[in-house]
Amino acid sequence: MTSQVSSPAEQADEAVVGEQRKPAGTKDVRRLDRVIIRFAGDSGDGMQLTGDRFTSETASFGNDLSTLPNFPAEIRAPAGTLPGVSSFQLHFADHDILTPGDAPNVLVAMNPAALKANIADVPRGAEIIVNTDEFTKRAMQKVGYAANPLEDGSLDGYNLHPVPLTTLTVEALKEFDLTRKEAERSKNMFALGLLSWMYHRPTEGTERFLKTKFAKKPEIMKANLAAFHAGWNFGETTEDFAVSYEVAPADTAFPTGTYRNISGNLALSYGLVAASRQADLPLFLGSYPITPASDILHELSRHKNFGVRTFQAEDEIAGIGAALGAAFGGSLAVTTTSGPGVALKSETIGLAVSLELPLLILDIQRGGPSTGLPTKTEQADLLQAMFGRNGEAPVPIVAPQTPADCFDAALEAARIALTYRTPVFLLSDGYLANGSEPWRIPDVDDLPDLRVQFAQGPNHTLDDGSEVFWPYKRDPQTLARPWAIPGTPGLEHRIGGIEKQDGTGNISYDPANHDFMVRTRQAKIDGIDVPDLEVDDPDGARTLVLGWGSTYGPITAAVRRLRTAGESIAQAHLRHLNPFPRNLGEVLERYDKVVIPEMNLGQLATLIRAKYLVDAHSYNQVNGMPFKAEQLATALKEALDG
Fold this sequence. Notes:
The protein is α/β, with parallel strands linked by helices. The chain is built from 20 helices and 26 strands.
């Protein structure tokens, strides 16, 4: 969905909820500046679809938004159990926001497990909508409820709305030729209709979606539409919901342009397609499905019209091997994976370093080690990306900071790979991959020119005057070697993983030559042109918060809170992790204290301490979830006061 907004303005991330009222027929409408909603239920209850549809309508309405899908790794976890709970959190506002929110203002719980798994995050006074039909004695006992929480007073501090969602849905669909089980599946659409009424969301997009999705099953399509409308009408007519809410569009939050809602993986996919077009090269993806990277393979497979070729290999090693072969053949080559796949790809990444061919390795990080937490987020692959190969095998590393920023990060990774003839790591993570936010669709004319010049003929003259092609003769500025397309007459040369002689590329075991080649490959990476680090420091602070990757949103939200409270604190965020920006050392020296929040046990902090001899303070979290803004604000306040 796209929408038009105008003129930029920066406001606090976590604004106070308003309380203005105005009459709307028999019901009041209360205006809010932001809302955080969490849908929760079994994996089979359609909570991700419900959240995604609510998000799409919110995007089309023009709100700023940020989302946090959270679901089990199992395809279908045991129904009614705590491990089987799937949730989707959406934070939307009439101003610029940065995170999915710390705590939901509204929890929609489809069963007792969903209530128990999420109630600890819900602040007192929040709205809780529960599907009472699922609160049977057996279902409650399964998750450890000794008594019915809807009746024992434990929820008295909340605005509880008991709604028999299943019964109401089945009743609304009784005219359709559906079994009870089939009718019950539409209860998520009933809930979506109810929430759409409560928050004045548009309905046209969801109606179009259902008509398209179930075009070949007209009875199912009509039933879902009926359930959606029944939920809306229930909100309109029931006395239990005496108030609905308005959150105005974020008209002043963004520059003028056309916007759409986008997830990190979708933005990466579009960035790769854009990079291939700007480079005038075919795009080749060699990949093996792995959570949370698989969506990139799915999306790119739809874009053959842009010269994209996708290859789903039998394993991770074959995937990157095919991609490296495509790079040798003159394509913009990509492989996508997560941490366990990077481990399998490491030898071929080392080969790409030795061959000095452009290759993009997209690591969508997740919780580890080993299989770890496939559907939870983490940013603990930094040291693996930096050092996880045998020998001296330096690889540039870039990291996006928001879902929309994944588009620009893909273009930047492609620029480095093509300019310097090197594999490049792009470190996203599950939070960015599955989360979404508004993205300003760029003008194609503003995209960088990534075109490359392939080798055309001899590039070296021997002592006897004959002209030959040397595959490792380097550009004096970038130290990049020529990119020669196989089959080009006169450009025949050896290729392989054994060490090469400088210039000729012939096999060499000479110690001095190996030392020279190792240092040259390192110098090429060290010499990559990256922008200086920008520091947000409005009043000469003495403490700097340094981050990388997906911690940008929570860190920035926390910094805003502290500044609003009168604290002086500076912030900087790294996109380039190898090489670091040239001014990073000078920036670090300006501050008495440097705090580095990371979703690992201090990997960037380790690199900063080693390279710059700065006593960086780590603040770490590895629970599979992103930082909360309030949590970071508290930790940073302690650092300021310490």
